[in-house]
Amino acid sequence: MIDDLYSARVLALAANMPRSGRLAAPHGTGEATARLCGSRAVVDVLLDADGRIADFAQTVKACALGQAAAGVLGEAVVGASAAEVIAARDALAAMLKAGG
After folding, report:
1. Model confidence over 31-53: pLDDT tens digits?
2. Under a CB-based contact definition with an 8 Å cutoff, are residues 23 and 59 in contact?
3. Is the pTM of this model over 0.85?
4. pLDDT at res. 3
5. Is residue 49 within 8 Å of residue 71, measured between CB atoms?
6. Which helix (H) or strand (E) holds 42?
7. The pLDDT value given to residue 90
8. How many domains does the chain have?
9. What is the pLDDT of residue 14?
10. pLDDT recorded at residue 83
11. What gap in Å lies between CA 77 and CA 46, rounded to an integer?
12. What is the domain range of residue 28?
């Protein structure tokens, strides 16, 4: 079971997290700490004239699964609109909590 969770892909994403670090002059910054495990993420975003994410950076202190999830986000988020990010968040919440 644990080998299935920590697959080579998960470990590769965790080890080579895209867009790691901070932006020099972000338009917005968010941070969150998970109450359950203490994982912490700080993200910076820079928006273009259309409100899409033009640049993104993240600092993540988490287990391999949390870092891999941040890696997936780092690979996909540039170019997304706020509505697309919100829809992805809602779909993930549905998958994890409601069997969506």
Report:
1. 999 998 899 999 999 999 999 99
2. no
3. no
4. 61
5. no
6. strand 40-47
7. 93
8. 1
9. 76
10. 93
11. 11
12. 2-98
Judged by phi (left if over 0) then psi (alpha if -120 to 50, else beta), residue 56 lies in beta
Q: Show the low-confidence residues of the chain (pLDDT under 70).
A: 1-5, 99-100
Tokens at residue 86, please? 């919100």
Residues 90 and 100: their CA atoms lie apart, in Å, by: 10
Rg (CA), the chain: 14
- What's the token pair of residue 6? 């920590």
Q: What pLDDT shows up at residue 13?
A: 76
Q: Residue 43 forms beta bridges with which residues?
A: 30, 58
CATH number of the domain enclosing 85: 3.90.1010.10
How far is Cα 60 from Cα 31, in angstroms, rounded to an integer? 10
Question: Which pairs count as long-range contacts for 91-94, CB under 8 Å and 24+ apart, including other chains?
Answer: none
Residue 80: CB atoms within 10 Å: 17
Secondary element (H or E) of residue 2: helix 2-5
**Beta carbons of 90 and 83 less than 8 angstroms apart:** no
By the 8 A CB rule, do 23 and 46 touch? yes
